[in-house]
Amino acid sequence: MAKSDDSEIKVTKKKVSKKKVSKKTAVGKPAVTKKAVTKKKTASKKKVSKKAVVSKTITSEQRYQMVQEAAYHLAEKSGFDSSYDLDNWLAAEAQIKAKLAKEKISVA
Predict the structure, then answer these.
(1) What pLDDT digit, counting tens, does each position of 52-95 carry?
(2) Measured at the alpha carbon of residue 89, what is the angle toward residues 84 and 92, in degrees to the nearest 5?
(3) Of 54, 61, 78, 102, whose CB neighbour count within 10 A is largest?
(4) Structural domain boundaries of the chain?
């Protein structure tokens, strides 16, 4: 009969560290090892002012055409009743003036 051994078996684990191994060539000289090349990313920073002011200007003729078109659309809504021509023109001028002021466009 086989004797059972009650002794404990201890298993130990060795910590294994990886070492850099260089290959040797046939002549006995160590081979050249390649190093990882990291590229530095350089972001090109452009200096831009936060408040870039762009002056927009239109001619008085362009403004006149804008008012003319707006007055036409107002007249179209009223069925082209000629009794509202002046009212439509003045309302169109007010609309265009507000639009130009909102978009900071000046008339030259």
Answers:
(1) 555 699 999 999 999 999 999 999 999 999 999 999 999 999 99
(2) 120
(3) 78
(4) 56-107
CB 68 within 8 A of CB 101: no
Non-local (6+) Cβ contacts of 66 within 8 A are 96
Degrees to nearest 5, angle at CA 106 with 102 and 108: 160
Q: Is the pTM of this model over 0.70?
A: no
- The two tokens of residue 3 are 């004797």
User: How many degrees, rounded to 5, is the angle at CA 66 between CA 64 and CA 72?
Assistant: 100
Helix (H) / strand (E) containing 66: helix 60-77
Residues 7-23 have pLDDT tens digits of: 555 555 555 555 555 55
State the Cα–Cα distance between residues 89 and 73, nearest whole angstrom.
10
Contact 88, 78 (CB under 8 A): yes
